[in-house]
Amino acid sequence: MQFNPASDMTDLGERVLCTESYGSRRTQRYQLLPGGTLSCVPDRPGDGGYRSLWDFFMAVFLPQGYPESVSPDYLAYQIWDTVQAFASSITGTLATQAVLKGVGVGDETSTVTAATVTWILKDGTGMLGRIFFAWSKGSKLDCDAKQWRLFADILNDVAILMEILAPAFPACFTFIVCISGFFKCIVGVAGGATRAALTMHQARRDNMADVSAKDGSQETLVNLAGLLVSLLLIPLVADNLCLTYSLYGLFTILHLYANYRAVRAVCMETLNRARLCLVLRHFLQQGKVLGPDVANPQEPLLLGFRHQLKMSLGAPLHTVTSSVAEFQRALEENSTNYLIFFNQAAGTVSVVLHQQACSVDVIKACTHAFLLEALMYWDVTSCVLEKESLLTVQQQLCEESKNKGCSVVSETRRILDRIFPRFLTGLTAAGWVTERNLLGPEEWRVDWTISGKKTF
């Protein structure tokens, strides 16, 4: 916009020079008044500050720039996350009361030393659980953040139930609360790590710290509300086991339902194995690529979900072959940046990645593995893409019961080379992010090229 102050100041009428906005929630105009004064005029009365208590609430508890600064699924997820946090706060209070009763609070025959030892054993067991779980599953939490988040909340309810029931078994009380502490520390690792992964997904303006901080404020407010409600419930449940168990059951059902709705509301644009499998199946059957908003609601949320063909992505070479001839054949039959070793009898497929393999190469390698799974377990007669080729290779696979899938790998590579460019274009057009992925490859990489030549 061009503005000539000298000419405009000669006009005694009010002129709008420019407009200004604060996200999508506040707009204002700047006017030139007689005498050359620049005046700021909100489009709505009160836009110069907080127009209402609701505006103040949004500024305190929502990220700056909301809703443009977060993902579209942010509000739905946070609403259900708030409900589950409130329910968890209530059941947590019931568990705390039960544990305190179990360690002897209010019992004149109990000693401080016995209570202290029980508490130390409980915390120590939990610390060991935290270290063990982070070591064994830490690298998997990013790939299946929704599944692990739901798992953490289910395990949390189990731990709370154990604490509520522990006083009924005084001989095993210490053992029960130690196991409960072990579970709760696993919950802490899984819940905290997946919360960070979801926060990274929700932050759209490099504002992960702000989103995380506001999430913490929301949780603090909810926990405060839970504490106030707990103050009213504690006198009622102090000596009433039936009411305690009833309230636990009621709020646990609410907690689990809210958690399910929360993780189901999350719409991830990055591909993990479950989402890639869903998208590929639909692509082969319909010729179209599902968008994130369609594929995410179909994604399994239980950790028990496993692909029928066991896949090792980023496998070390020595675990898949010790034969120079087999390695040379794999180099001749596979893509330049990954090698597929398929063992039909064992139901396994191992992918060896090149050092220069990028995210698209990893997606292609995983797609190749799922194509082999389709030949083994899917009904390929329903496919509209490469139907005849897939049926031919499937028939060949049935006839070669003792082979390691070498010829099948070569055939499926040729099929994949024909369809993958269209598939990759469809992924990008549908809104999937292909520059990074959540397919969870191991860190092993092999360099089988020297001066541009394949070696063995």
Strand segment tally: 10
Give the overall shape.
Answer: flat
Low-confidence stretches: 5-13, 451-456
Percent of residues in beta strands: 5-15%
Spell the H/E element sequence: HEEEHHHHHHHEHHEHEEHHHEEE
Q: In CATH terms, what is the architecture of the largest domain?
A: Up-down Bundle
Q: For the largest sheet, list the strands in their spatial order.
A: 1-2-3
Mean pLDDT: 85
CATH superfamily label of the largest domain: MFS general substrate transporter like domains
Please report the distance between the alpha carbons of the first and last residues: 66 Å
Structural class: mainly alpha
How many separate structural domains? 3
Text of the CATH class of the largest domain: Mainly Alpha
Radius of gyration: 29 Å
Count of separate DSSP helical elements: 14
CATH topology of the largest domain: Growth Hormone, Chain: A
How is the main sheet built? Answer: 3 strands, antiparallel
| Range of helix content | 55-70%
